[in-house]
Amino acid sequence: MLWVDKYRPKTLDRVMVHEEIALNLKKLVAEQDCPHLLFYGPSGSGKKTLIMALLRQILGPSAEKVKVENRNWKIDAGSRTIDLELTTLSSANHVELSPSDAGFQDRYIVQEIIKEMAKNRPIDTKGKKGYKVLILNEVDKLSREAQHSLRRTMEKYSASCRLILCCNSSSKVTEAIQSRCLNIRVNAPSEEEIIEVLEFIGKKEGLQLPSGFAARVAEKSNRSLRRAILSLETCRVQQYPFTSNQAIPPMDWEEYISEIATDILKEQSPKRLFQVRGKVYELLINCIPPQMILKRLLHELLKKLDAELKHEVCHWAAYYEHRMRLGQKAIFHIEAFVAKFMSIYKAFLIATFG
Ligand SMILES: Nc1ncnc2c1ncn2[C@@H]1O[C@H](COP(=O)(O)OP(=O)(O)OP(=O)(O)O)[C@@H](O)[C@H]1O
User: Fold this and answer.
1) Is the Cβ atom of 189 under 6 angstroms away from ligand 1?
2) How many CB atoms lie under 10 A from the CB of residue 349?
3) Which InterPro entries match (predicted)?
4) Mutation test residue for ligand 1: of 26, 48, 287, the one with most atoms within 8 Å of CB
5) CA neighbor of 90 nearest in space, from 35, 120, 134, 153
6) What is the pLDDT of residues 112-125, one digit of tens each?
7) Phi/psi of residue 243, each to 5°?
8) With a 6 A CB cut-off, is 162 part of the ligand 1 pocket?
9) Does this model's pTM top 0.95?
10) CA 76 to centroid of ligand 1, rounded, Å
11) 45 CA to middle of ligand 1, Å?
């Protein structure tokens, strides 16, 4: 088992960062009237860990007896029937799914499937009617229609189900949904907190961490706890005993994007654009989220760019990121950004060096 899973705290009492949030969540459950919740914050900050620990607090150890199912639904949409396939993770009293996996058909998931799940109210051992917990991941990726349907579902079934929504950016979640939930911001942990977790894992694994080593791993992690733990494990595999100046390897995909940025800066031509497209495709099929590819690519390009171009390039990156959100095929928008960048950069080179 990877350390990120092995050392994921299972209960709210055991969390090492976001202790205050954990304490508040405990109080919320103790009051027996848990509202709908919206967890948001950057990737690797600990949202999922808090959600799973909260679920355990609400449902007890039964929350851990989960089964993964690949389920098919046939939805009657007036003149036609729509086939939908989705993976769910469920225990007796909760279901977890990512409705945005259904792409542009996400609203059918929200309209029909979530409604159906929400309606089935469990009855506890004392014969009292309980509520079902629905965990919805990546709600910021849901279309507007799906978010409107979700709002109606939240209102209609609030007595029989509690929704726990999780996303990276709350600004992409409609006001109507945000206002019906208790919003919980999960900040990226500080470097000191990350060091604490790394040292805890090191101790549990019986490792000798040279002084300053955990701090270097934390610094390279960009304040992502997941990334810091993964880096520590990679270092352990590459070389142990650790040395204080041991290199902390970047993630493979980041190195690959750095190569793409070098390719773009070396040559600006249709042929090079075509090659870059192939490389971006490779990243996408390896499940690197398109927003992250664009962000990292911008970061790499900015590192090597003249100050006077930076503003314009950032403007176009934001423009294509926005268009990517509206559209379906991310590759078009990343490629369009690369083409735009090439044209700006080439014009700059010609104007400067002739
Ligand atoms: N409170 C915590 N105390 C100790 N370790 C933690 C805590 N929260 C998270 N971790 C560690 O960090 C890893 C990443 O956390 P988690 O999966 O919860 O992040 P996330 O915010 O849901 O990320 P993403 O948005 O990318 O899914 C976990 O696997 C766990 O090992």
Assistant:
1) no
2) 13
3) AAA+_ATPase (IPR003593), DNA_pol3_clamp-load_cplx_C (IPR008921), DNA_Rep/Repair_Clamp_Loader (IPR050238), P-loop_NTPase (IPR027417)
4) 48
5) 134
6) 777 777 777 666 65
7) -115, 155
8) no
9) no
10) 39
11) 6
Nearest CA to ligand 1 atom 16: 46
Name, of 15-19, 141-145, 242-246, the range with top average pLDDT.
Answer: 15-19
Pick the CATH number of 3-185 from 3.90.280.10, 3.50.50.60, 3.40.50.300, 1.10.1200.120: 3.40.50.300
pLDDT of residue 209: 86
Residue 165, both tokens: 């929504």
- Closest C-alpha to 199, from 84, 191, 171, 128: 191
Give the three-state DSSP class for 132: strand
Give the ipTM: 0.96
Q: What is the pLDDT of residues 288-298, one digit of tens each?
A: 889 999 999 99
* Number of CB atoms found within 10 A of residue 200's CB: 13
Q: Whose CA is nearest to atom 18 of ligand 1?
A: 46
Is the minimum distance from the CB of 18 to ligand 1 under 6 angstroms?
A: yes
Write down the pLDDT at residue 200: 94
Pick the residue with more confidence: 16 or 108?
A: 16
Position 92 confidence tier, pLDDT thresholds 50, 70, 90:
confident
Asked if residue 226 has its Cβ within 6 Å of ligand 1, the reply is yes
- State the pLDDT confidence band at 278, using cuts at 50, 70 and 90: very high
Ligand 1 touching residue 134 (CB < 6 A): no
From the CB of 22, is ligand 1 less than 6 Å away?
A: no
Pick among 3.60.20.10, 3.30.300.30, 1.20.272.10, 3.40.50.1970: CATH of 252-347: 1.20.272.10
Q: Which residue's alpha carbon is nearest to atom 17 within ligand 1?
A: 48
On the question of pLDDT at 127 being above 60, the answer is no
CB 54 within 8 A of CB 12: yes
CA–CA distances in Å: residue 136 to residues 51, 74, 95, 170, 329: 11, 21, 9, 14, 23
Pick from 255, 335, 230, 258: nearest CA to 290: 335
How are strands ordered across the β-sheet holding 94-97? 67-77, 80-91, 94-97, 132-136, 161-167, 37-40, 182-185
